[in-house]
Design goal:
binds adenosine-5'-triphosphate, Rossmann fold, six-stranded parallel sheet, alpha/beta, globular, single chain, 11 helices, binds magnesium ion, two-stranded antiparallel sheet
Length: about 250
């Protein structure tokens, strides 16, 4: 890893970049993942590199959905595995949702490396290597486990691809995505879109899971039923417009 002085004004962002580069070096993250990270960074700038009130609300609803689910699954790709392996394990423990590796640029070697990486970070079991079921898609993200994503009712898909998000929704699943780009196909297709950095999101969701575990089922249902994803998306765009206006000195 490159040395980054702790007092560098962009320390957190640069450290994140280092983690993704390290992920590529370890054979966990694809090179295309670097491009996705860059796109995410740009949108993070526009949102002020903080969790907005509407993103926090989406995180709360997402936790309610995971706690209410009968068969929730947390899908893991190469970027998420490089950036937040320990948080994914903690969120899995806090919600009872198993982890499943699912890759766009899939090789069995990379799937196994990510499974091992998650286990090094405390996971006891990770799905994704059975590969015994298919979603209706023409690329590798179609390959899933029958006792994981294939039969799940709620799936959390951080940094997702638009096609698979659509395929999961078409199967009648509730899909939660984490995507800093409110304009992506994924953002527009998911049931709940969290427009926030995956690093901040997972920390918030872990804390919320512990807080909300004690809530009555009816209260959790009320949160989910009152949720409107189009409101979240327009709020994120408005937030970015405000930020640009502020920066332009208006
Ligand atoms: P889509 O396929 O949904 O139209 P896309 O092709 O633009 O989107 P992908 O490469 O498929 O994008 O998915 C990566 C998405 O993840 C991008 O929209 C990017 O903004 C977002 N992203 C990248 N890094 C982060 C991060 N650290 N936190 C949250 N979102 C991120
Ligand atoms: Mg895409």
């Amino acid at each position: 890893m490159s040395e980054i002085p702790k007092d560098h004004p962009r320390y957190a962002s640069l450290m994140t970049r280092e983690k993704i580069v390290e992920g590529v070096e370890l054979g966990i993250t694809s090179q295309q993942g670097l491009v996705a990270q860059g796109r995410g960074e740009c949108f993070d700038y526009l949102i002020g590199e903080q969790t907005t009130a509407s993103a926090f609300m989406a995180e709360k609803v997402a936790v309610a959905m995971l706690l209410l689910a009968e068969h929730p699954v947390l899908s893991v790709n190469g970027n998420a595995a490089a950036l937040v392996p320990d948080s994914l394990v903690r969120l899995s423990e806090a919600t009872g949702a198993p982890l499943e590796v699912n890759l766009f640029h899939r090789t069995e070697e990379r799937v196994n490396r990510i499974i091992e990486h998650l286990k090094t970070n405390g996971a006891l079991e990770v799905l994704g290597s059975n590969a015994d079921a298919r979603l209706d898609l023409q690329h590798s993200r179609a390959i899933v486990d029958s006792d994981g994503i294939y039969n799940a009712d709620v799936v959390l898909v951080p940094l997702e691809d638009g096609d698979r998000c659509q395929a999961l929704v078409d199967m009648g699943k509730m899909v939660i995505t984490i995507d800093l780009n409110p304009l992506s196909r994924t953002s527009r297709t998911a049931t709940v879109t969290i427009v926030d950095n995956v690093i901040r999101t997972l920390e918030n969701m872990i804390a919320l899971s512990h807080e909300m575990k004690g809530l009555e089922e009816a209260e959790l249902r009320k949160l989910v039923e009152g949720y409107d994803n189009s409101h979240t998306l327009s709020d994120a765009v408005r937030q970015m417009i405000r930020k640009l206006e502020e920066l332009s000195g208006l």
